[in-house]
Amino acid sequence: MDLEFSTEEAELRDNVRSVLAASCPPSLVRSIFEGSGDAESLWKQMVDLYWPGLAIPEPLGGLGMGYVEVAIVVEELGRVVAPGPFLPTVTQFAPAVRSLGEDRHHEHFLSAVASGELTGSLALAEEGAWEPAAVRTVARHTGDAWRLSGSKSSVLSGAPAFDELVVVARAEGTHGLDGLGAFVIPWASVETTSRRVIDPTLPLVDVRLDDVEVPEERVLAAPGAEHVPAALAVVLEEATAAVALSTVGTCRSIFESTLDYAKVREQYGRPIGSFQALKHRFADLYLSLERATSLCYFAALTIAEDDPRRSEAVSLAKAAVGDCQRLMAQDGLQLHGGIGFTWENDLHFLLKRAKCGDPLFGSAAWHRGRLAEQHGLLEVSA
Amino acid sequence: MKLSFGPEVDQFRREFVSWLEENRPTDEEIAVDPPRSSADIPEWARRWTRRMFDAGWLVPGWPPERGGRNAGPVETLVYLEEMTKARVPRTTNPQGLGIVAPSLFDYGDERQIREYAMPILLGERSACLGMSEPGAGSDLASLSTRAVIDGDELVINGQKVWTSGANYADFCFLFCRTDPNAPKHKGISVVLVDMQREGITVRPLAEIVHPDRPDLNEVFFDDVRVPIDNLVGEVNNGWAMAGGSLAHERGMVWLSSVMGLEENVSRLLGEAPDALARLSPHERGVVVDRIVSSYIDSQAARCLGYRGFAKLVRGGSAPEQALMKAFCTESQRELSLVAAELTGDRAPDLGDSTDRTGRGEGSWLERYFGSFGGTISAGSSEIQRNIIAERVLGLPRA
Amino acid sequence: MTAQSAEQLRHELRSWLASSFTSELRRALRGPSDEAFDAHRQWNAILFDAGYAAVSWPEEFGGREAPIREQLVCAEEMARAGAPGPVNAIGVANIAPSIMSFGTAEQKDRFLRPMLRGDEIWSQGMSEPEAGSDLASLRCRAAQDGDHYVVNGQKTWNSMGDRADWCQLYVRTDPDAPKHKGISALLVDMRTPGIEARPIVTMAGDTSFSELFFTEARVPVSSLLGAANDGWSVATKTLSHERAGVATLYLNLRKELDDLVASASDGSTGARPVPSALTRDQLMARYIDVRNLEFLAKRALGAMLSGRAPGPEGSVIKLAWSLTAQSLARTAADVLGVEALDAPWSSRLLSSCSLTIAGGTTEVNKNILGERVLGLPRESRHAQG
Q1: DSSP states of A288-339 as a string?
Q2: Tens of pLDDT along A298-357?
Q3: Which of A279, C137, C311, C357 has the most CB atoms at less than 10 Å from its CB?
Q4: Binning pLDDT at 50, 70 and 90, where does residue A146 land?
Q5: How far is CA C3 from each of CA A310, C69, C74, C298, rounded to the nearest angstrom?
Q6: Residue-level pLDDT at A159
Q7: Are C74 and C9 in contact (CB under 8 A)?
């Protein structure tokens, strides 16, 4: 396999990076953390550049690119702790509509995403579990409409108000992967509780659905439809890989910042990076970062090419990124010493983003458990 | 080797506990007026510290005229155990009582003791330590804030950073360079500087967990004039005071860290069953193992501390002491991380920092970030390892 | 050379291996005994005669000048069959390329084919008791006397030292020059009087390493490899045709891991413990590590195939490989319990301890990574404390 960027891919990365350098400087991120700013102008800039339609097919008004391109953009967004609705809209909402829904849904919703008119997110997880089998939100069919009741946790927000939400629910009395369906409902029709979180650029809300009525045309996939379990797997793969890629971008920024610091900060008459003990730490950090990055792009590639290894690749990536952020956030702060501990320094935005992104779509340990299961190890437990 | 210190010590403990229960400030008193920095002395704290001084319970190892009762090391340890358990500080200006006052008693003259040290013991004045600078962190001896003699005054120019409590302190125990030509450790002096002096600018430094309640500060000195009488001890002999502390409590500074660690482990064990139920079976196995490791570390920390203490009491040296700072602060960090990961998708949530006593510490993730204050300041983990390697293990210096 | 021809080669090699690498041979090769060594030499000759001993080498020396894609294919097929390569592993990987880069026509003609075929056994004389990580400080002395060098000194950790016919020996020929500039490389006949090999018994119980003692051994000046006092270049600037070595590293490790996962999922037997969540977690962490090696290798190979300059993957791979191999051995012990005390894991476990020491310690590798790849400043020689 060729696991390096092509010329075009490298150009995309460079373009995205320079746009973000201008439109998402640390001062913007700081303004979000300090409660004085918002992501509106950044989102508008992205819309003007057609980023929301990156992976939406051309007939629907998108750029028709693949998942590798999405991965490149997402990693760059993670590097600068970019706020806004890109991540949930492009890597959760749009794939959900695409995989679960039919042509009419694609035409209606995806073209609106491509034109930047519509933002959305995905309400799947409940009680901290992202496996579809754990869904307990219920969909009851009454007359012409469905009615949804239940609670969803840790829905990624990212805009003052989203437009739409894909909700995964199950028919009453069903279990496991049976009876699952998906609906698109207006954000305004659900009760959301914004959580006070340590990283306000990744705003999380809990959602309550209280007998919410959903008309037929907003049913993406009726509960129990045959394609749902496989479609949900695809959606989860793309969403999970995106979080992993974003986090690895954040980790790379932490690494670069810390490495630069060690080259200039002097104590005892020499740069602190000249001490062997610190060199070894940096070598360890570098190993961990490369480990995670390689696996992330392998995952992106298998998704882009619809390779059967994609399911495992995503867990490999997410687990490795989990390990990476654990080490990187810790050593990144420790090796900056006192100045890393100040509010004034931009480092803590990166640290907080690295930690807050990690639990989404499964921890490292959760993904290793999934790998263990796939390798037939879980039946052998005591 | 035995598990308890004996009946006399038990009696001492009981006596203190009952005094404490009768005389301590209430949670309500504290909640109404919590200290805003490590040099802020709210009214209740002023009264409380004075009360302890008068009753000889402020620094038990000192004589009565200094707020003590000539207690021995074991009694002092017991006293600290009970104070930590009760979660009541003896002073809201820890660096004043723990570092500045003892240094003044060792090196200061009568006037300095009367005007600066005694008021600390009485809860009337608070101090900050002027040590670290932007170019002098781990390498403190390379500090460059300059004090030049001009007649009967010293003129001070320079900058300090990470100065805890400077935004509230009455005076600063300032380390400055009085001889730039001498080898770096031999050109440093200590000067007492009233914080109201002209030319001093204090800039609070928000830190990453509680930016709205800064305790750390930058302090700028711009031609600040101070009477030369405020030089503590001999000129250019300041480095000797850089390790200042309550001498007979030196073997016990670990105690509050250990008890803090145990309290956190307890809290974690309490929260764990419900939180574990939300995890997948595989995660559960892994997280349980990490929780248990944290528990083991907290127990080990206690035992290490007591072993070191026992050696000191017997008049020997205690290498355990060198380990304690790194071990306790890193265990605290790891524990907070495990606890944060235990909460799964709830980890990003901010904690409720406004419990009744105003002592809420935030979510586990906030505590994780806060724990770096421990692994970085007062001799970072990296420096601790150098010290362990060189001074305890005798490995050659680079 | 196209992907098609590479797949053809794969086919060819696979079927040749199926018929030539018999289960008899496979059994005979097991373990560290003398019989196993002889079996390895036998196999080596068969491999050479069929043209597969070193496919990347020039044809005149027994190779087939295979480009990277084909090298990779051969490495994959050999690993798949569990077939070992030439008995002179270090010789073929390090000594032969240095002869190809720095040797005279006579030296190339004389040494390369017998080395590749396993007709002559080679050892490399580099490390000394006082010169391990700091190899440049080696002391083994070669003083010129007419048209001979007189060699005195000691080498250690010489693979196959006690069986070697020839040795690539690094000696100090100019003790007055700066240390890197006074070293020469010699190709020494081990039958020369004054040379003694003493086997070292490792904790794995084998004698695959020896110490070598040189006492007034007279070696012709014509045995110089490269120019006099240019030995450090020979050691460090040798270019290899062989590119797929990085792939071989992960292929073998992947095989070991697959074996281990299979054992673990077989469930508990009398001796083997039931895998706990932790063991599973560790095993999956190893799986991720090995897959990571695969991707690091593929990134490096991908760059080479496209003619791009290789990135820092090479430095990272060796370090990652040694750490992963060692961790894998430890995880195996957890998974297999008492069974880990039997072959093949027992010897893997013990010898895995050397992986992070031999051929460049982890600490030195991290220094190299830190300084050359990450650009961290070098530690000054006389640092102030």
Answers
A1: HHHHHHHHHHHHHHHHHTT-TTHHHHHHHHHHHHHHHHHHHHHHHHHHHGGG
A2: 899 999 999 999 999 999 999 999 999 999 998 999 899 888 888 889 999 999 999 888
A3: A279
A4: very high
A5: 24, 7, 13, 16
A6: 62
A7: yes
